[in-house]
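During the no-cost extension, the postdoctoral fellow (Dr. R.K.) reprocessed legacy sequence entries with the updated structure-token encoder. One reprocessed record is reproduced below for audit purposes.
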Amino acid sequence: MSALATEATKSAQPTFARTKFTLESCRTGDEAFLALVEKQARRHQVEPRALAVRTLLQLPRVASHNGRIRRRDLDAELRNSAVQLRADQAHVIDLVPIDAYPLGALQFVECETEDADAIFGNLHYLRSARPGSRNFALVDPIHRRPVTLCSVSPMDWVLVGKQLSRQFGVPVERMWDVSRVYSFDVAPVNAISSLLKGVRNELRRSEPTAELLTTVVDQNLGFTGSSYRAANWQYWMSVRPRPYLYVDGMAISPRQLKLRYGTQNLAEVRLRYGVLAEQSRATLADSMIYCCRVRGVTEAVEPGERRRVRRRS
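Re-encoded structure tokens follow.
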């Protein structure tokens, strides 16, 4: 190869020397962001996908009003998230799958609550399990470790349940929510959609009153709903975003904030407990509500017919 060709090849290679990023570019798979994720994942020996999601959850805290993020802030959040993820991973190392298997070799099971709680409590980006859930998994054929798992809970989000009931005629008490999903990097393609199909079949068999499965897809964390679409779920409505919440620099859900401090009022939390409680400033993307009828075909909802509701709880 000539010197000129070599130089041309070098100049075509991405350098990723960018000093500023945006929430939008990071959540939509910006090449430079993903390269930084891979670098930190290798350095700390954690799964890149889990690291990307955790970092995306943290970035709104350091983003400006217009969603811009300084490179040094991104590097810090990636590093901190990787260190925390590695520590969390060590707590459940006996449950982390080692080998990759084809989809057909995995078995659908109802997962032990203790195992599911440990994985969701340590590895899910919310670092918590949903109490009172049924947990399902695709497990490997040798060690019986979950490769992909989810929890399913009776619908308890009043705002979404009431809107779905009004618009689609399904009583709230007949709705079940896929409240947690976690998939390890060794999971084969279509593992989540296969798991969702298994959950639908199991609820049809064991929960005779169940009519509808729902879930929330948070676009701000890079989720697109592709696994749900592959399992024949439909995008039925959206929920307006509200700021992410943080205590001492760590993301916390409104539910967790209320359980831990007895209130969702950040000023009260700061005053009573002396912690740094803050919220994001940048505009976030809507959450998408995907649904699947437990029996029969799930009808599509045209974009113009999708309701957009305001989040309150």
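The longest strand covers residues 146-154. The chain is about 40% helix and 20% strand. The remaining legacy entries will be reprocessed before the final report is submitted.
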